Amino acid sequence: MNGVLIIDKPTGLTSHDVVNRVRRILNQRAVGHLGTLDPMATGVLPLVTGSFTRLAQFYVASEKTYEGTIRFGFATDTYDAEGEPTSPVQEVSLAKSQVEDMAARFRGAIEQTPPPFSAKKIHGVPAYKLARKQKPVALQPVTVEVMEFDILSVEGDRACFRARVASGTYMRSVAHDMGKALGCGAHLESLRRTAVAEFSITEACTLDELAGSAGKSAEDFFVHPRKLLPEMPSVTADEATAARIRAGRPVNLPEHSRARQVKVFSGQRDLIAIATRVAGTLFHAKIVLCGTDAPVHR
Questions:
Q1: Active site residue 38
Q2: Which of 71, 95, 117, 135 could form a disulfide with 189 if both were Cys (CB 3.0 to 4.6 A apart)?
Q3: Same-domain pairing of 260 and 175
Q4: What is the pTM of this model?
């Protein structure tokens, strides 16, 4: 069973927990995800199954869109609501204009230090493992990009926001740094991911819906393969061309002589390869998806 499935992740589960549940529901071992979500967070968690797990490399740098709430008044050690307070609780009442002015400082390319409770590695060890043992966590600042960061409303000590960010951006760190700049402390109270790359929350299903899909095939929940990687042109190969691609041989695709990479289909739904242009109209498969759960990776 090869495909992409969008799960609306519930709070309290790790991304790996979701992967394991879907493995059991689909009775399939080859399941992976396209970018983790913190246990506290909810929303879009794209999963890839079967040979489509090989597509994960194309989503490493995907943009993400979030909605959430920042609570001002105290910081926490995890930078979110699951952590322990690291500063005294203050009574705070902020004006929307004040928070909007601060949010403007966090748009564009910014320097950001990842949270100590994160998967970032220090000498090969995830930072959160060191933090849990109360060992020093010295993470270096990195440059990230916040394309959109809009404050939707402010009420008392809470601000609701919507943000679109580049891969590697932590909204927990944004909340923490805003609180530090305002001198009152802050943390991320809630977070919901509404989009990853071309995948939207409108396409998502819950784990319960997937498990209890009476009268439906699990594949009915999968994203149509033609919608994947929209930046790449699609080509439908005839039987002879498809056979050459499956055998790992180069093929001529004259209709896409200017494209760097193309998605190759056999029929409407069978995505058989991602092919890279060698020269002129000659393409060679970067990944061959053989229509089985045993992909050929070249």
A1: yes
A2: 71
A3: no
A4: 0.89
Whether residue 143 contacts residue 106, with contact meaning beta carbons closer than 8 Å, is answered with: no
Stretch among 5-14, 80-89, 120-129, 143-152 having the lowest mean pLDDT = 120-129
Same domain, 207 and 121: no
CATH of the domain at 236: 2.30.130.10
CB 100 within 8 A of CB 107: no
Q: How many CA atoms lie within 13 A of 100 on its CB side?
A: 9
pLDDT digits (tens, 9 = 90+) for 15-49: 999 999 999 999 999 999 998 899 999 999 999 99
Q: Based on the domain organization, do 186 and 273 belong to the same domain?
A: no
Retrieve residue 180's tokens: 């530090």
The radius of gyration computed from the CA coordinates of the chain, to the nearest angstrom, equals 22
Active-site hit among 38, 80, 157, 177: 38
- Would you say residue 234 has pLDDT above 60? yes
Range of the domain at 112: 64-191
The count of domains in the chain is 3
Instruction: Tell me the C-alpha distance between 37 and 14, whole Å.
Output: 7
Residue 108 sits in the same domain as residue 72: yes
